[in-house]
From TrEMBL:
UniProt-annotated stretches for the region Disordered: 276-295
Source lineage: Bacteria, Pseudomonadati, Myxococcota, Polyangia, Nannocystales
MF (Gene Ontology): dioxygenase activity
One Pfam family of this chain: VanA_C
Domain Rieske span(s) in chain numbering: 9-112
Protein name according to UniProt: Aromatic ring-hydroxylating dioxygenase subunit alpha
Keywords: 2Fe-2S, Dioxygenase, Iron, Iron-sulfur, Metal-binding, Oxidoreductase
Protein source organism: Nannocystis punicea
Length: 319
């Protein structure tokens, strides 16, 4: 399970998108999952496969805090335990459970741990900004037809800004003939923080890589808070679901979400037009491409991916 992306916490969506009585289907690293809320409103996740005849539980409905299979009406609680087998009051329900996957709701976001079971060896590592009060969190998702590692390394790549984003983000890194760009990487427990200087003059924006698949952009806005998160969520080996999130303490009304989403979609579209042409589709070993000094953040990500994620799997537990 979760081949190439096992045993990690990842953001999978906004908490408000998981409704009380509606299942939410999701695919992560080749595994189909269904999220729903139990009777106490807690977020839960199961492998989207009924143990009876293998149909998708997400096609069913949520009843009394359980997901009901659309085929024969079997019901499963958030921990995967079987709560009902219609027509069979004598069924040994303790042997007829579904497979749970750890999920948490933290900082307004849904986090999933990519291994089966109820327990996880750690908890999600939230950015500090998500622990604050009085913030608006909004976002959207968009598909990229490319392996997630290409999307992730692009989000860490400073030098492409004045070229790919000449209509949107060019001023974030203004290009002048003969200028020298320096990029600085600081190791952090959750990954690394990068900053830049042009001709020795530091730039104010900083960009974080948060293991395994999130970019966190800090944009100076005076006394205001304005930060961006981008999560490259692998759907399968060739498709990525990109979550672009805005965190702000101004224009907090929901009606402004559309404005920030429109801006994000424009930036994402610029990236998609280029990234989807990458060959090979998954980031190769560094020796197979030509790199320069300003590629340090992306090369660090490639090493982390190959050392800690590539080829990883999570086995399904015995029932």
């Amino acid at each position: 399970m979760f081949r190439g992306f096992a045993h990690v916490w990842t953001i999978v969506g906004l908490g408000r998108d998981l409704k009380r009585r509606a299942p939410l289907p999701l695919q992560v690293a080749g595994e189909r999952l269904v999220l729903f809320r139990d009777g106490q409103g807690r977020a839960c996740a199961l492998v989207d496969r009924c143990p009876h005849r293998g149909v998708r539980l997400s096609l069913g409905k949520v009843e009394d805090g359980c997901i009901e299979c659309p085929f024969h009406g079997w019901r499963f609680a958030g921990d995967g335990s079987n709560q009902l087998v219609p027509w069979n009051p004598d069924a040994r329900r303790e042997r007829l459970g579904a497979t749970p996957v750890p999920v948490r709701e933290r900082g307004g976001l849904l986090w999933l741990y990519t291994a089966p079971g109820l327990a996880a060896p750690s908890e999600p590592d939230l950015p500090d900004v998500l622990r604050r009060d009085g913030l608006a969190l909004s976002g959207f998702t968009t598909p990229f037809d490319i392996h997630w590692t290409r999307v992730m390394e692009n989000s860490l790549d400073w030098p492409h800004l004045p070229f790919v984003h000449r209509r949107t983000l060019r001023d974030a890194l203004p290009l002048r003939p003969g200028s020298r760009l320096d990029i600085f990487w600081e190791d952090r427990p959750w990954g690394g923080r990068t900053s830049t200087a042009i001709d020795g003059v530091p730039r104010p924006i900083t960009l974080d890589y948060r293991f395994p698949n999130t970019m966190h952009l800090h944009i100076p806005s005076g006394r205001r808070t304005f930060e961006l998160l981008l999560t490259a969520l692998p759907v399968d080996h060739t498709t990525t679901r990109v979550l672009m999130l805005t965190i702000r303490d101004f224009l907090r009304a929901r009606l402004f979400d559309r404005y920030f989403a429109a801006s994000g979609r424009k930036i994402g579209g610029e990236d998609r037009a280029v990234i989807e042409t990458s060959s090979p589709r998954e980031v190769p070993p560094a020796s197979q491409e030509r790199s320069v000094r300003t590629d340090e953040p992306t090369l660090r990500f490639r090493k982390i991916y190959r050392d800690r994620l590539m080829g990883s799997t999570a086995g399904e537990p015995d029932r």
